[in-house]
Amino acid sequence: MKIGILGCGWLGFPLAQKLLADGFSVRGTTTSEEKLSTLKEAGIEAFIVCLSQEGITGDLNTFLKDLDILIINIPPALRKSPNENYSSKIAYLINELPTNKLPKILFASSTSVYADSVTFPVITENTAMLSDSINGKQLLEAESLFIQNDNLSQLTTIIRLGGLIGEHRHPIKHLSGKTEIKSPQSPINLVHHYDVIDIIKAIIRDKKWGEIFNVVYPWHPSKRNYYTNAALDRSIALPHFEENGPSLGKFVSSSKVTTELNFTFSHLL
């Protein structure tokens, strides 16, 4: 089985390594020559492909040729490019999919598609709370390109990821010493990237296509408690939170993942 990972970065690269270890043939893309050799040395058939709102550069057609599964892992880059039209990038990609053999598709989205509220609602995959954030709106538009496409809707599974953490990546590194952080009482919705990798493997194993899954570790302390303790554990400057003003947030439920995939989260936050 041939699996292509569009975006072999912090999540995509270890995912590719795990899939290779499981015996899959893996292709991967990067946007830099520097990273190309790293992918090749790991046994990945590597390509330079760059998606922009103007179009696509690189050998995308060869990358896509005869794939059984395409994993799309290219989140919006709104911090670097605030005016980026993310959904247009995905539309260009969809237009290039081989019509003679459409692959199964796994699209990595985000829980930012759900709106925050002062009531901290419990969010499931069926919740019709649509985000008013730019990031959330762009991801929803991109999701709809698959969901509303008659040829792709039943081939595509969307995973809505919580905030990603890992061994060398944690939000407290950016929040340490910051002041006036908003919504101190809002619940966290995070997930370890190794759990995400295991969930992707389970989706492939169980052939769960045409689905939407929330992917969030089922533990939701308040931002204040979680990040204060994270700073104390690392002996770094504490974050300081806004004392006035409402806290906006949500509890994102991942019960569908645990029941339908018989999955147990194993990497603590």
TrEMBL record:
<dbReference type="InterPro" id="IPR051783">
    <property type="entry name" value="NAD(P)-dependent_oxidoreduct"/>
</dbReference>
<dbReference type="GO" id="GO:0004029">
    <property type="term" value="F:aldehyde dehydrogenase (NAD+) activity"/>
</dbReference>
<feature type="domain" description="Pyrroline-5-carboxylate reductase catalytic N-terminal">
    <location>
        <begin position="2"/>
        <end position="77"/>
    </location>
</feature>
<dbReference type="Pfam" id="PF03807">
    <property type="entry name" value="F420_oxidored"/>
</dbReference>
<dbReference type="InterPro" id="IPR028939">
    <property type="entry name" value="P5C_Rdtase_cat_N"/>
</dbReference>
<protein>
    <submittedName>
        <fullName>Sugar metabolism protein YeeZ</fullName>
    </submittedName>
</protein>
<dbReference type="GO" id="GO:0005737">
    <property type="term" value="C:cytoplasm"/>
</dbReference>
<dbReference type="InterPro" id="IPR036291">
    <property type="entry name" value="NAD(P)-bd_dom_sf"/>
</dbReference>
